[in-house]
Design brief:
Helices cover 85% and strands 0% of the residues. By secondary structure, it is mostly helical. It is flat, with a radius of gyration of 24 Å.
């Protein structure tokens, strides 16, 4: 197979590797955007590496995946606290919320964030970025040299698995407001989204509208989860303020009630978006995965045609 038929997968790996390297510079400096983007890219790589490296020889895919997984873990807690601080900033401008209560919670979160940031930076320093770059480059090189595309079948299987997981998570969540089960829906949607992004990059353009559906619901559930994390910090501050003046406790109680109301509102929006999200797994099974297979067959036919043309030219 001509190397050009491998280009989408090769270019995808190179692009993700370059994006990770770029954002790790900001993350190492403690920049909130860099931390977020590096973490998101690491998650995309964790989805891409096992799929794209299927059947490859001579790559360091396993070692690359383990290093990327360590990065995701190192960046996780700080990112979560950055989001909590952003939510508190927005709440401080809300008329019905006590600024004093917000500042009390913010002080607790900011202190934890600094401690976690120190741990994150130490973990990032322990990662050999050059070695990680070489591991990722080895996967790209192996893709470039491959003569078949077994990753397409692997991606199809992964998409079917992710689709079933999303349906199962939505069934378990039902219509009740259950934070842990809604978080499982969010995780399942995110994993399916990353798989569909791979399919889109592989040439399945029909994945685009379903990516938008998943992204919208994922962002909604992500905001809901962020508010639920904030609730844990508010609760911790309330415990610490148990002996404080009544007005201080009342401010924290009002803040907690305000955040709870936001959570309930977002849950209602999720229920409204649920039917459309439920359609995605069926589309993946009936349309997206078959298109991956069609692409594989088409590539094989193109290869045979090129070989036949080359043989014809050489016989003249």
């Amino acid at each position: 197979m001509n190397s050009s038929t491998q280009r989408p997968a090769t270019l995808l790996m190179r692009r993700l590797a370059g994006t990770l390297k770029r954002h790790l510079i900001g993350a190492a400096a403690g920049d909130a955007v860099g931390v977020h983007q590096a973490r998101v890219t690491s998650r995309r790589l964790r989805e891409a590496i096992p799929v794209l490296s299927t059947g490859l020889r001579g790559s360091k895919a396993g070692k690359a995946a383990r290093k990327v997984r360590r990065l995701t873990r190192a960046l996780g807690t700080v990112r979560e606290l950055d989001v909590t601080l952003s939510l508190l900033e927005a709440l401080s401008a809300t008329p019905d919320v006590s600024r004093t209560a917000v500042e009390e919670v913010r002080a607790t979160v900011a202190g934890e964030r600094e401690a976690r940031r120190a741990v994150m930076l130490k973990r990032l320093e322990a990662v050999d970025h050059d070695k990680l770059g070489r591991r990722l480059a080895s996967v790209s090189a192996a893709l470039e040299q491959a003569t078949t595309e077994p990753w397409r079948k692997a991606l199809g299987s992964r998409l079917l698995e992710r689709s079933r997981a999303l349906t199962t998570a939505m069934d378990a969540a039902g219509h009740m407001y259950a934070p842990e089960r809604l978080h499982e829906v969010r995780i399942a949607a995110k994993k399916l989204r990353y798989g569909l992004e791979l399919a889109f990059d592989a040439g399945v353009k029909a994945a685009a509208p379903h990516l938008r559906t998943i992204k919208g619901t994922q962002e909604l559930l992500g905001t809901l989860h962020d508010l639920q994390v904030l609730q844990t910090h508010i609760a911790a501050t309330q415990i610490g303020a148990a002996s404080a003046r009544p007005e201080a406790r009342a401010g924290l109680d009002a803040l907690a009630a305000h955040v709870e109301a936001q959570c309930r509102h977002l849950h209602g929006k999720y229920l409204s978006a649920g039917p459309k999200l439920r359609e995605v797994p069926a589309v993946v099974r009936k349309a997206i995965v078959p298109q991956l297979a069609v692409r594989r067959i088409r590539t094989a036919k193109m290869t045979l045609a090129r070989h036949a043309a080359a043989a014809s030219r050489s016989s003249r």
